[in-house]
Every structure is written in structure tokens, then in C-alpha cells.
Amino acid sequence: MLNFSRFKIGLILISLLIFFYIFIGNFNFTNKYKIFLDKKVNLGLDLQGGSYLLLEIDINPLLIKKTQEKYNDIKKIFDEKKFDYKNLTFSNNKIQFELKNLSQKDDAINLINRAGRENIFLNNNLENLKKDFVYKIDKNLIILQFSDDYIKNLKKDTINQSIEIVRKRVDQLGTKEPSIQQKGDNRIIVELPGLSDPSNFKNILGKTAQLNFKFLKSSSVDKDNIGFEKIKNKADGSFIEVEKKLIVSGENLIDAQPGFERDTNQSIVSFKFDSIGAKKFANATKDNVGRPLAIILDNEILSSPVIREPILTGSGQISGGFTVEEANQLAVLLRAGALPAPMKIIEERTVGADLGEDSIRYGLISFIAGFLLAFIYMIYAYKLLGFFANISLLLNVVILISILTLFGSTLTLPGIAGIILTVGMAIDTNVIIFERAKEELKIEKSNIIAFDLAYKKSLLTIIDSNLTTFIAGVILFYLGSGPVKGFAVTLCVGLATSFFTAFTVNRLMVGKYIKNNKDKLISF
After folding, report:
1. In this structure, what DSSP letter does residue 102 have?
2. Could you say which DSSP state residue 446 is in?
């Protein structure tokens, strides 16, 4: 195992040069030189300070909304077909109504299937859990509700969609290297390194930003309130009746920008619809010239301009007495999209930059102190061979940092602990090899044969030792979160790099030394 071809030696040297090139790019003094990669190891919240927010999603309003949509579909088709029923109501996750005659059951089933399009009454069981909607019949009373599977999938989709929206909002505000990840079934962790005051983010993150366009109730309509709802007017706090029918929503927006109204110089937000939204908007405004259109954000009317002429361009503007900052925030929210369900901040922590600097300083002190002690011990115990081992330890750290840089990993305080632990594992690897060499030198007279056997016989032991630790690191990565994942990443990568340096770089140096001193007595 001590023989290296020229090709292998060249490959090792080229690899080390590439890793050095990536490693040096992490230092600030290289910024003025454009020859280095513009990539650095990201420092975590505990190392550079910043803000930590724990968000919780409330799924219940979305579930009520979905139930209401089903209720409206069923009511509409019952009324259209003049179906004879009574007491149709909905609450939370349930819709129920009474049949005036039990013989109407089949008719009701057919109509609901037609309204829901999902054949909820495919068979006549009392419960059909494979469907989105399940039902129960109790004499003349029919109860419908969403299945557990549907609710589970709805939660999963909602959390995934919310994470993407939060990510877009954070990106819109230009935060560098944020960490956004799911925690549990309905929570999201947002870490914002370097941000000491998260008040602006809190205002942005907590808003649902549901934008809807609906016509105000016309005075010519009779007093029947079916099909209308009262919504609070932001300007004076009064409640205004608007049609429940949605003209177009923020889902069709493709752009929103803050600006100023020419005549009044008030802050406004200009928006633009996609082709589908533009078509809906054009059709609605063409048939309703002269009617006021309510612009509703999060169930509050911002403004209600009168349609003077059909709006065919698919663009418009929102005014509502905004300040410049409010207009900017609203534009950010609209560009990022609306949250599918309300979200609130349940935990907030701020790590000061000074604390982060202290963490870095203490982490470096621990690393340097531990490394120096290991360096001294290896020299004391194994003389020149110990010096070779120390060189491979240094290269191990260089390669480890380079790989973290390439993958854009975030280095946290537990991550530094993982690096220190890796250095300890690398020392163990060299100690096992050198102790095995000592044993072989007692038997073999040839230094080359003794060290060759030492590397061969210690290989399986080292693989077994590193493999078990590596598996533990992989489990930590998949089951852990945040800093625990950072520790697992540095530990796993460090084990691979320590194995590489021990059996390539260190073995190459030891092999060259042994071959040049094959007749000398090797002492430890």
C-alpha cells in the first residue's frame, strides 16, 4: 500500500490545490482579487447574530372556507333543480340538511355528486374514508364532512405552500442566507442571520395578503341578502355590502409595484394580471360600467373605485391612504403571493452580533487549543511520522471547509464542535496505523513490509469505526433540525475527509519517507 504511481501522486496534488483554492476564497482579503470563487461558508445565527422566528399556521379558517365552498355548490344545485329539502347548514367541517321525504335520498345523492364532481356517494356505505368527502345518513338527516385523509393532505399542502410564500417574502426584502424549514405538522422556523431588528419582517410575514375584487351591492337589487356579505371598510370602519361572487383574486397577479398617483401624489400600488386574470377583469368591467368595485385585502375594503370604462389591459392600481412604507409592504406581499391560511408568530428570539462574535472567538479558541494539544502529542509520540500526521490533519480541515463552501452549507457552533470531533477521529485513525506499525516492526525486519502490513490490517478497523459514526451522523441529519443538522453535516463530511487524508496524503508522505530510509531503524 506504500506504492503510488505518478498518475496517483499528480491526482492527489491537483485535488489538494483545488481544495486550497476554494478554501482561500473564504477569507475577506481575497475579495479584491477576482480570481477566487465568490462563495464562502455561511455562518449560522449563533455565530453572526440575527433573528429567530417560529411561525404557526392555523388550518381551521381554510377548512371552514373549503366547507363553505362545498355548501355553496350544494345549495346552488339544490335551488337550480328545485330540490325539496330543509335546514341546510354548515359549521366548521360539517354540512347537514334534512330530507322532507326519505324517498328523496337517491335524488339528493345524484345532485350532490354533480355539485362536488368527486362521486362522494359512489357506494352506499355509511362511511367511505377513501374519498375527500364522507357522509352519514341518520333517518332524514344527511351529514357530510371532509375525510381525515383529505384534511391530512390539506395540511401538508398548506405547510408546503406557506414555506414557499414565506421564502418569497424573505427574498423580496433582500435578506442574505435565510434558513426556512418546517417544524412539526404546522410550524415553520425562520432564521435571519445578521438581522437584529425583525420588526419589518414580522409585519410582512404575519399578513395573509388575500386580495379579492368584488362588486358592491347595487341599490337596484332587492332586499334579499342572499349572495351578499358585509365587509369592513378600512377608511371609516363601517361595513359595506358586497357581492359574494368573486371577480378575480390575487392568484392571477403577476406583478405589483409601489408608486404615486399623478393628481393627488398619494402612495398607490400598481398591479398587473396574467392573461386569465386580465380576461376575467375585462369581462367583468365591460358589463358593469358605472358600478363601484371593491378592492378587498384580508377581508377589509381598501378602496371602491367606480368603473368608468372597461379595463382591457389587465392592469390597474390600488389606493387606500397608504404611507410610502405601507405601499412598499403591500407590493412585496402581492408579488410574493397570499398565504393559504393565517399564520402567527409564537416565538421570537434575537441573537446579538456581540454574542455571535463571542461564539466565534470561543469556538476558534477551542479549536486551536485542541488542535495544538493534538499536534504536540503526535510529535511527542511519533516524532517525524507524527509531524506527517499533523500535516494531514491540517489538510483535513482545509478540505472539510472547502466542501462545506462548495455545498453552501451553514456553519453553526455545533458545526464547529463537529469539526473538532472530526479532528479527534482523524488523530485516532493515525494512532491506529502507527500502533499497528509498531507491532509489525517487532516481527518484520523490513520497514516497507511492516508499514505496508500496518496500513492493510488497520484499514478494516478504521472503516468499521468511521462507518458506525457516519451512520449515526446520517440518522442525526434526517431526524434532527437546525444546529443538530449542522453538527451532523460537518461530522459526516469530516469523517470522509479524514479517511481521505489518512490513506492518501499521510500514506504518501509516510511511504516516501520509509522508502528513502528502508535500512534505518524507525523509532517512535
Report:
1. G
2. -
- With 0-12 / 13-18 / 19 or more C-beta atoms within 10 angstroms meaning exposed / middle / buried, residue 176 is exposed
48 touches 351 (CB < 8 A): no
Which triple of cell numbers denotes residue 483? 444546529
The DSSP output letter for 29 is G
User: H helices within 208-318, ranges in order?
Assistant: 275-286
Furthest-apart CA pair in the chain: how many Å?
111
Which amino acid belongs to residue 230? K
Tell me how crowded residue 380 is: count the other CB atoms within 10 A of its CB.
9
Beta bridge partners of 188: 55, 182
Q: Is 488 exposed, middle or buried (0-12, 13-18, 19+ CB in 10 A)?
A: buried
CA angle 433, 435, 438 (to 5 degrees): 110
Do 15 and 524 contact (CB within 8 A), yes or no? Answer: no
Of 117, 302, 123, nearest in space to 210 by CA: 302
Cell numbers describing residue 427: 488523530
Q: Is 519 helix (H, G, I), strand (E, B) or coil?
A: coil
Residue 291 Ramachandran class (φ > 0 left, ψ -120 to 50 alpha, else beta): beta
- Tally of residues, the chain: 524
Contact 456, 469 (CB under 8 A): no
What is the identity of the amino acid at 248? V
Q: Would you give the DSSP letter of residue 292? A: B
Model pLDDT, residue 17: 93
Asked if the model's pLDDT at residue 149 lies above 90, the reply is no
Side chain identity at residue 294, one-letter code? A
Q: Given the DSSP bridges, would you call strands 187-193 and 50-57 parallel, antiparallel or unpaired?
A: antiparallel
Tens-digit pLDDT profile for residues 498-520: 888 988 888 899 888 888 887 77
As a whole number of Å, the CA-based R_g of the chain is 34
